[in-house]
Amino acid sequence: MKLSIVVPFYNAEDHLERCLTSLTNQNLSKSDCEIILINDGSTDNGITIAEQFRNKHINIYVHCQKNKGLGASRNIGIQLAKGDYIYFIDADDYLAFNTLSIPLEYLEKNNLDILGFSTLITDKLDLFSYQQEPIENIEVITGNDFLVKHKNNRLEAWWYILKREFLLETNLKFEEGKFMEDAVFSIKIFLEANRIMFLPITIHRYVKSPHSIMNNEDQKHLKKVVADYISLAYRFNTLINEISKKEIKNTDAIIKNIKFKSTVSIYFMFFKLIRLNISIPKIYKILRDLEKINVYPLTNFIGEVYNHPKIKVTAYVFNHKYLFFLCLYPLRIMHSLKLIKLY
Question: Where is each Glycosyltransferase 2-like domain found (predicted)?
Fold first, then answer.
């Protein structure tokens, strides 16, 4: 079997059918591709949708478990996978029809550990068609070189396919019970890879939703998101310390890359702090703690990617904590009156 596609889902009844429709309309035979659905304790109608697809397609398998989170679900998927290659996709995203044979061809022909491809960020739910894109001058490089050359690459696991043998040899697992559980995993797995290729083909659809967890205004939820951003910064800091002790190529450049990503997460944390009803003394303590691991002020942030004037102004305000405190309550009032929109 060539490919195992792992699809964890939790209460995804609004998205799962679209995702599975895209996966079952690929130019791969059922003997070459298996789809492993991990039902992570759903309480909605998602399991019914999964079973309906399983009954129609002999290469679909459903594994049910108590809610353990996305990282644990993906790790179960690794254990269950039988394909030469493994691909992880989120249940609320989807693929263009008849496209997976393209990356598989390059994976096999070039004996790759990892192959990445592009995504289209959209709010449209029916972009199944694919227009052939030119593939020219594609090189095979090490994961170390890839992290330096593509320093703005995303850290989610849905934009690349892994060789299963390579993944098992690394013995790496997704973080369990963590926010952005694939962030640290992606960096570590790329550092282990000797043969990586990136194809500039847009076959993945990342669905933006106004009702996503990042737009949730519930105070308990916002408090958790802020804690998750802080946790991610600390986990990145631990990763930096681990890398700095190893004798690897491009150490300084890779650490700079990780610091950039950590700082970006703290930048977006500030918008959650504005929406969260938390006191200034508590925010002050958060910022003091972040100073200790050198992710605040946001010195590694403004650059060639995040250079929009609005971002520069907000970063300036965030970097000067007393100015931020002065603006905090007016910003909260304007947000509550829907005069401004926060990330």
Answer: 4-132
